[in-house]
């Protein structure tokens, strides 16, 4: 990997980390691209190539992951959770949740109680399995886990 590619990857990781820290805040591509010190269009292209999903979809997935935890572990209403994780519309939250998880937030809560396991195990087990396609590595062949939706 060239020095330029390594530098770009570090910048993209820095931007992704910023998204992870501020997932509940209103974020747009321009703001996150500024963290990586590249243009919004170039950031979006590179982010998708490296992480296999658009910055917007990544942010949605992170918000849904957090909402899954809150649905399992708290008694907060779905509406409270929707706004707590950064969505501004209950309808958009419910539709996105259903698209990523495969069931509505209410049905998810009914079927999934609190998990008794170390947090790292909980996070791995509860990660939504979407239809995210991984970018092919340098050799051109997708990895065996390309269809799992897991990073």
Automatic annotation (TrEMBL):
GO molecular function terms noted in the UniProt entry: DNA-binding transcription factor activity; sequence-specific DNA binding
Superkingdom of the source species: Bacteria
Keywords, alphabetical: DNA-binding, Transcription, Transcription regulation
Composition skew (Low complexity), residue ranges: 135-151
Listed SUPFAM superfamilies: Homeodomain-like (SSF46689)
Region annotated Disordered, chain positions: 131-151
The keyword RNA-binding is assigned to this record: no
Domain HTH araC/xylS-type: 13-111
InterPro entries the UniProt entry points to: AraC_XylS_family_regulators, Homeodomain-like_sf, HTH_AraC, HTH_AraC-typ_CS, Tscrpt_reg_AraC-type_HTH
Name of the molecule in the record: Transcriptional regulator
Organism of derivation: Nostocoides japonicum T1-X7
